Request: fold
Amino acid sequence: MADKKKDIRALSKEQLREFFVKEGDKAFRGNQVYEWLWGKGAHTFEDMTNISKETRQMLQDNFVINHISVDTMQRSSDGTVKNAVKLHDGLIVESVLIPTETRTTACVSSQVGCSLDCKFCATSRLKRMRNLNPDEIYDQVVAIDKESKLYFNRPLSNIVFMGMGEPLMNYNNVMKAIDKITSPEGLGMSPKRIVVSTSGVPKMIKKMADDAVKFNLAVSLHSAIDEVRTEIMPFNATFPLEDLKEALEYWYEKTQRKITYEYVVWDGINDRREDINALVKFCKYVPCKINIIEYNPIDDGQFQQASSSAIDNYIQALESNNIVVNVRRSRGKDIDAACGQLANKS
Ligand code: SAH
Reply:
């Protein structure tokens, strides 16, 4: 019989306190259990050793703890680690640990599959199966933090929401997860070390600005010309660049924080002079920087990384307009862990 008990981690601290009061116990018991669930990462009620046996049994009768488990873990020759993470209902998402000299970055998923349909991304072929819960997002981060300590002797330093899914299409749960990641009762990480990456959902970008979030924003731009962008990112027909621009201006006005545009240059798609000019123009709307990312092929031949001279043209044009541009090398390609390759292949 399927377990219909509620996931205890769906309760806020206040709700847990109220639960205990209703059960005739002290509200404080709620704090203790909350600390076990979030601070100490307890996987079972049995683990909660300072809680009486009777209370643990009572919790057991009422709730489950839906923990993720790392199903398989692959290590790349460049040190990148990819986790296939099993959820309580058997679905799988992937998260990636990316080490550099000075940082360990966790790249986490926000949905099983994805709501969007970017033609160059392997995840889009999975379709969206469901949103991840806040605790399922949080657990991915905790798992990578542990691996970082184990393999690199240091805690996780940065988090990017660039795994599977569109974080702004699962806004509430992503926000709750970030609250937990940044709260002292969770991982106590600074929001400045977190980047939420979106394909560009204007309404939600404005909502984030209104909610005065403290993390950084990245937008997967890939083209500043509507016809081209709609071709490769069909949802652009619904959320055209003019709306995106307006939302980004609103974001900057409210947060005063620079935006990062992610950009892949493809042969015969966005490598013309007019593509470059359009990007330069787009970059003048709000303070920003550009990350040119290497294309990670996902089987068919429709998309091919542009030549290095095409990329040089972009760099030159951007730099001569005083726009900061970084070229990002791909990591973890040999284990399908690089951008756009997450598709539960294993
Ligand atoms: N949905 C969010 C986050 C996931 S994608 C977003 O779109 O931003 C993370 C980044 O990988 C995005 O910038 C995306 O455009 C990029 N990407 C997708 N497929 C890729 C591929 N095959 N090669 C390189 N980058 C890719």
About this structure: Residues 69-335 form a domain with the TIM Barrel fold (CATH 3.20.20.70). The first helix runs from residue 13 to 22. The radius of gyration is 22 Å.
